[in-house]
Amino acid sequence: MDAADRPQGRAASGSDPLTRVLVIGAGFAGLWAALGAARRLEELCVPPGSVDITVLSDKPFHDIRVRNYEADLSPCRIPLADVLDPAGVGHITADVTGINAHTREVMTSGGQTYHYDRLVLASGSRLVKPDLPGLREFGFDVDTYDDAIRLQLHLQQLADGPATSAAAAVVVVGAGLTGIETACEMPSRLRALFVRPAVAPRVVLVDHNRFVGSDMGVSARPVIEQALADNGVETRTAVSVAEISAAGVSLSSGEHLAAATVVWCAGMRANSLTEQLPVTRDRLGRVAVDDYLRVVGVPAVFAAGDVAVAKMDDEHVSVMSCQHGRPMGRYAGYNVISDLFGKPLLALRIPWYVTVLDLGPAGAVYTEGWDRTVVSRGAEAKVTKQTINTRRIYPPLTRDRADLLAAAAPDLQARP
Ligand SMILES: Cc1cc2nc3c(=O)[nH]c(=O)nc-3n(C[C@H](O)[C@H](O)[C@H](O)COP(=O)(O)OP(=O)(O)OC[C@H]3O[C@@H](n4cnc5c(N)ncnc54)[C@H](O)[C@@H]3O)c2cc1C
């Protein structure tokens, strides 16, 4: 590394000889940002020991969050040690509570302060839980791996208890993508659990919109409606939830649905760490990033995944999704190191958009384009969904540095 190749813009940091890149979050954006940064260091032949990349994450795992609606969660949690240690990326389990963009420091709930030369914010999003009577006490969700395990244990406890119809009844609130996937999977999950004695499952999907999957477009809606019917899922649309209790759900229509389980799937918002940056946020709480994933108006800070809103093409911005979070992460990782060394940055543009929605035993629906035109359905689309959920979005699990760095290249995958 000659003088021109030394890291640029480094803040004075006393006697600390290391240049530090911090990544907050180890989800689809954070993991790939960290690996993308490690890959770029190697590509620039930066001597080991001169730039430190460390992930700060509140869990020591890379969770495959998109699979939280599934019955078997065993393949959904990957230890960070398996995917970061071989790449030489540090990781610290810490709940980040503050970011000071002026002093370039990150603070944690444990009282630690970490200096950064470059920061990648990738702390994702959280399910929005409104202040609704009973939701916090009695509601379940599939937002995180831990939430999904809590739901799983609750259902198992019900199946082990008295065999009542309410015990085998689940109300899913929110007929967006997560709610539809959760509802479609639920009847077969309940049938597998409530076997002794057999209790007929009941699953009801509730939404305040007039249609289920209102964001999925007119082409996919009939496919979704048919799948819900085929799976035996009832729907209640154009109603809202008034109250949740241990006995079930009261709707704005006056109807009471007796159910021992309510799964809340309505609404997502960017992680609140975005509020620590001195910039405005969009209606989902996301910070604006430029084509290179730099937070607009905040020097030395990049953002990727659900915390960031980036242009995907000249007309569309990123959607809170794994589909966009992974490439945003890889590009942020490449660019954060390129920026440190004064090298050209790579602009991210993704010229395609797809949706692949799991419909449980009824298969799946696969749409292409921003207007979500159905291109396949049923068993054919299910194969695509399973390929995505079990292979395409996983990091290599070989513990091999070369495999991990190769997978972190700032390339765009082809459509699934
Ligand atoms: C059930 C379900 C199904 C989904 N299905 C799809 C789908 O089919 N296709 C699709 O594209 N998207 C889907 N999504 C959305 C997708 O999961 C998210 O958009 C994606 O996970 C965003 O990636 P991310 O890295 O930005 O955030 P996340 O994956 O949420 O990762 C955030 C990371 O930040 C960490 N973190 C958070 N706060 C802190 C803190 N204060 N301090 C330290 N660490 C912190 C978390 O532990 C985590 O490691 C689904 C989501 C759910 C819940």
TrEMBL record:
- Please name the InterPro entries in this protein's record: FAD/NAD-bd_sf (IPR036188), FAD/NAD-binding_dom (IPR023753), NADH-Q_oxidoreductase (IPR051169)
Its EC number(s): 1.6.-.-
Check the record and name the SUPFAM superfamilies matching this protein: FAD/NAD(P)-binding domain (SSF51905)
Q: Which Pfam families match?
A: Pyr_redox_2
**What's a Gene Ontology MF term here?**
NAD(P)H dehydrogenase (quinone) activity
Q: Which domain of life is it from?
A: Bacteria
Q: Which GO terms describe its biological process?
A: aerobic electron transport chain
Could you tell me the keywords of this UniProt record?
Answer: FAD, Flavoprotein, Membrane, Oxidoreductase, Transmembrane, Transmembrane helix
- Transmembrane domains' residue ranges: 21-38
Task: Fetch the Gene3D superfamilies from UniProt.
Answer: 3.50.50.100
Give all residue intervals belonging to the FAD/NAD(P)-binding domain.
20-325
Question: Any keyword Oxidoreductase?
Answer: yes
Q: Which cofactor does it need?
A: FAD
Q: Which family does it belong to?
A: Belongs to the NADH dehydrogenase family.
Please report the name of this protein according to its UniProt entry.
NADH dehydrogenase-like protein
Q: Which organism is it from?
A: Mycobacterium attenuatum
